[in-house]
Structures are given as structure tokens and as C-alpha cells.
Input
Amino acid sequence: MSRVLIIGCGGVAQVAIRKCCQIPEVFSEICIASRTKEKCDKLKEALEGKTETKITTAQVDADDVSQVIDLIQDYQPDLVMNIALPYQDLTIMDACLACGVNYMDTANYEPEDTEDPQWRAIYEKRCKEKGFSAYFDYSWQWDYQDRFEKAGLTALLGCGFDPGVTQAYCAHAKKHHFDEIDTIDILDCNGGDHGYAFATNFNPEVNLREVSAPGSYMENGKWVEIPAMSIKREYNFDQVGQKDMYLLHHEEIESLQVNIPEAKRIRFFMTFGQSYLDHMRCLENVGMLRTDPVLFEGKEIVPIKFLKELLPDPASLGPRTHGKTNIGCIFTGRKDGQEKSYYIYNICDHQEAYKEVESQAISYTTGVPAMCGALMLLSGQWNQTGVHTVEEFDPDPFLDALDKYGLPRSENFSPVLVD
Ligand code: NDP
Output
């Protein structure tokens, strides 16, 4: 029996909410709060009569700490699930600390305005010190470690699929399959087709920022940065087939390097079709991915925000997307003195996901782990205080929950390796 405040009601949050409502014995009461309350009310209406979970809704601007504090004080939740945008991570963490409540999210902090001089100064120092230039990194949220620990609270960071399940796969490999892990390759394949020439599968702004940034990977404890999309490999994915994939910077590499320090190389690859890449390059070349305001007919507009308005809403892709995703990790290393390799992954079917929760598989593969992470915290199975990423917790109950609630694991004990 618990009360959970869920902030955000977009593509990912809607899946997480629908999944919570499948387990009313744990999620007995939820409050869906977002910037646009109508979306919350619409979802509440769709779910009423189909679940025992008691649903309320609220309007909140989560950029404003005091509004989040008022809402938490009013609702008195056991947990706050931040499934809004990475821009709100710090304000919601501040509110959780002020109110003494546990926190979780699905993506690490990045600022909305990357031209803010105060943020930029810290960012540029970090680029030089660490050697990667993505706008997001864990330092902002790791900075809350002492405060959460002292308050006896837990902050679970990045509990979607990647980041999220991919780190649980790493913890599982470390616990059950290896004495020492040498290399980790995270492969994220979306074999789905939505029929549009160009659309993003989750929030376009966050997605395009991530994909258009330089790639990077960890080698012997150091970041190696490369121009965007400059390392390409082909891989034959189970139940999807042969796909081109590109090396990207991805947030879980940073925490995995800290928590599995013996790994000599950690890389992240994502598949992209040619049409997606051509469109993205063109949009970038003409300035449509810019995140700073430009003056247009006397009004300031941010090009990437304007673009978001033009692109299909990711939440609307569900009925039109066919095919499967295949996301997982390939490990090499040693067990009992023997060299070995191991691949653990999940396959998710876009149409099956749509039938169950009216959403495509990208939102499904993020929303289900968010619900399972909440389940771990609410049931006390994950109870370390402080600020933690998924690989720091026991992977067994989490992977069992994923098996049970829609994202079962597959394994391959002699996988083809990525060169
Ligand atoms: P959407 O854009 O579909 O939804 C975002 C939601 O947050 C909307 O309901 C939006 O409200 C709300 N929101 C935005 N700003 C505020 C604010 N200031 N106050 C309150 N609510 C706000 O995003 P997605 O559902 O696609 O993504 C959600 C999160 O999941 C993101 O952080 C994304 O990075 C992460 N993600 C993680 C993945 C993983 O595997 N770990 C994979 C995919 C996504 P409104 O309706 O008014 O716009």
C-alpha cells in the first residue's frame, strides 16, 4: 500500500502510470501531476473503472521548487517519480529533500538553456577535466549524495531502459557470470517502422540533442571523444536482423566506469536508419537544432522547441509503429580463470506494447523499468540511502520484476562480438 506522486504525463510517464495501475496492491494511490493538467485528467478518465488504484491529478510547474514542495506537502507521497524532462531533475530533488521523500527519475540532469553563462562556465571546466562534451553528466545529481544520505533518503537515478536496465544487466553479469569484466558494449536497436520520413521516439528535443552531440566511449579509465556518428558498425540483432549502428555518448557509461572500474572499455551503440540521419544532418546544418533563442518577426523562438511542435508527438506513434526493439549488453571477461563472453538483452514488440498500454515500444521499454524501479523502492528491496544509479543495487529482484511485467530477458553465451 503506497502513495506515489508521478510528475510528467508524456509518452514514458503514461506507460509507467498504466503499469502502476496493474499493481494496485502496491500502487494503491497515485497522483499524476504535470504542466498540462488536461493530459493527466484525460489519462485518469481512461483508466478509471479499469484499476483499483485511486488516481488524483494536479497541475505543477516542476521548474519551480516551491510548487513541487506545496504539492508534496499536500499529497504526502511515499515516493516521487520524476518522469518529466531532465531539466526538472534538480528542482524535484530539492523539493524531495525539503519534504523528506524518496526520489527517482529516468534521465540525468541537463539544463534547458545551454547558453546560461553560470552553467556554461561549470560545463566548460568539466569538458576540459573529463574529456567529453555532452550537455548532461552525473556531477549535478551526485552532488546531492551527502544531503540525501544525511536525510536517510534514496534518490534512484536513470531508471529507464538505457540508462536503467542496461546497468542492471551489468550488475547481473558481474554478480552471476564474471569475476572480472573487461569490456561492455551496450547495443540499442530499434527495428520499428512508423512510416514517417522523420520522427523521434521520445521527446524530440532531448533525443536530437543526444544524437547530434559528439560520440564518446571509455577506454582504460579515460574518455575518448569522436565526431558525431563517426564510428559505425553493423550487427545482426536477434528477431530484428542486420542494422547499422553508431557509437554515441551515453550517460550510463559514466556511472559504470565508477562502479565497474576494472572494465577496460565501455561503449554504447544505437541503430539509425539512413532517412533519420539525413534529416538530422539537414536540420542541424540549417540551424533547426539550436537551443538558444533567435529573433523571429520580433519574437524570440528557440529553433529546437519550434521543431518539436512540427514533428509528430512521440505518444502518437504507437498505432503506426511495427517491428521490434532489441536492447542489451555484450560482456567479455573472465570467470574461474576462463575467458568468456555473454550477451543479455530484451526484445520488445511495438504492436504488442501498443495493444497493452497504447504506446510504442520506446516508451514501453522506459516506462516499465520506471515502474519496476518504483516497486523496488516501495517494497524496500532497494533501500540504500544516498544518490545511486541502477547498477549499485541488487539486480535480481529488478530483473525478475522486468521478466514478470513485460520486459523478459534473453541470453546468448557465445555472442558475435562488436569489433
Ligand atoms: P514527453 O515530452 O513526452 O513528456 C514530458 C512530460 O513532462 C510532459 O507531460 C510535459 O508536460 C511534462 N513537463 C515538461 N516540463 C514540465 C515542467 N516544467 N513541469 C511539469 N511537467 C513538465 O517526454 P518523454 O515521456 O518522451 O520522456 C520523459 C523522460 O524520459 C525524459 O526525461 C526522457 O529523457 C526520459 N527517457 C529515458 C529513457 C531511458 O531509457 N532511460 C528513454 C526515453 C526517454 P506538457 O504536457 O505540458 O509538455
Summary: Residues 165-358 form a domain with the Dihydrodipicolinate Reductase; domain 2 fold (CATH 3.30.360.10). The first helix runs from residue 11 to 20. The chain is about 35% helix and 25% strand.
